[in-house]
Specification:
The protein is α+β, with helices and mostly antiparallel strands. It has one domain: Ubiquitin-like (UB roll) (Roll), CATH 3.10.20.30. It is 19% helix and 24% strand. Strands 2-1-5-3-4 form a five-stranded mixed β-sheet, covered by helices on one side. Strand 3 and strand 4 form a beta hairpin. The longest helix is centred in the middle third of the chain and has 11 residues. The radius of gyration is 12 Å and the shape is globular. The N and C termini lie far apart (38 Å).
């Protein structure tokens, strides 16, 4: 199973834990999480289903490549980390 974790700053809005999901893609993994905790969807994805600009998603230590369709493939023990992106200068 792939595991999905979210940054602790979301814990003030939604109870968080590590979700273990059976999924072949990042999109499928996130859909499994959102089924359990629908309030997270609006934080992570925009109205078209793409990752919001202020959110960073890492898959097995690398950045998510497909922020639009979420088709990055997973292996059974993939680790997905979702966090607020930092910007500024």
């Amino acid at each position: 199973m792939a595991s999905v974790t979210f940054t602790p700053n979301l814990a003030r809005h939604v109870p968080l834990h590590v979700w273990d999901v059976v999924a072949d893609t990042v999109g499928q993994a996130l859909a499994g999480v959102f089924e359990d905790e629908p309030r997270l969807r609006g934080y992570v994805l925009d109205e078209r289903g793409a990752v919001r600009h202020h959110v960073a998603v890492f898959v097995d230590g690398g950045t998510l490549r497909d922020r639009q369709a979420l088709t990055d493939t997973l292996v059974p023990d993939s680790k997905i980390h979702v966090m607020q992106a930092l910007s500024g200068g």
